[in-house]
Write a structure and sequence with these properties.
- It is a single chain.
- The protein is built from two helices and 21 strands.
- The chain is mainly beta and about 200 residues long.
- Strands 1-11-12-5-4 form a five-stranded mixed beta sheet. Strands 6-7-8-9-10 form a five-stranded antiparallel beta sheet, covered by helices on one side.
- The longest helix has 8 residues.
């Protein structure tokens, strides 16, 4: 007798997940179900070049990448990664014809068979894949003055240059992209701190 998959109907999250890799940026489709963010295994296959096979009688799903396998259960929130068991926030679920897994599958299970780094930053809505540099950049206005003092922290540390142009200070970080936390408003002589025109710049106006 085949095992029935749990059925799930979800809605897109308020802010989409963005993948950053050497190949560029792309939006990663996900859905929210009962407070849990899920990703379709069809999208995982397209993003990471894995193959997905479903075994309806046992209720298991096998994800394969270059001869390395992950076996997922539809009844338990676990995965066997090359024989090593890891836990997940939820088991495989179904939405129509699609199979869904928690986004944490990427960093708890897929990373164990994949040949590139996978870094999921849910708070920042970033999925970083491969050898790209994406430091965390936190900007704030420390004192409105006079004088006005603003701070930009880069972690991990990276070379930074700053140029002044027509009432703007353009801060350029040597990185592929930035994981930004910017204040919603300025203060004192700083009207605004915003994302620059380039993916590795911050502008103080």
């Amino acid at each position: 007798m085949p095992v029935l998959f749990i059925q799930a109907q979800g809605t897109p999250p308020p802010t989409p997940l963005t993948q950053i890799a050497r190949e560029g940026r792309r939006v990663v489709p996900t859905v929210m179900v009962s407070g849990q963010e899920l990703i379709g295994l069809d999208d995982v296959a397209a993003l990471f070049q894995v193959t997905v096979a479903e075994d309806a009688p046992t209720g298991s799903v096998t994800v394969t990448y270059r001869g390395r396998t992950i076996v997922l259960s539809s009844t338990q929130p676990i995965a066997s990664v090359n024989g090593r068991v890891v836990t997940l926030p939820a088991p495989v679920t179904r939405s129509g014809r699609r199979l869904l897994v928690p986004v944490e599958f990427l960093t708890r299970a897929l990373v164990g068979v994949y040949d590139r780094r996978i870094d999921l930053r849910k708070t920042s809505r970033l999925l970083i894949v491969g050898d790209v540099t994406v430091p965390r950049v936190v900007a704030r206005v420390d004192a409105v003055g006079p004088p006005t003092r603003a701070t930009i922290e880069v972690s991990p540390a990276a070379p930074v240059t700053a140029t002044v142009d027509a009432g703007r200070v353009i801060v350029r970080v040597e990185a592929d992209a930035l994981d930004l936390a910017l204040p919603s408003a300025g203060g004192g002589l700083v009207d605004q701190i915003r994302v620059g025109d380039q993916p590795n710049t911050v502008v103080l106006i």
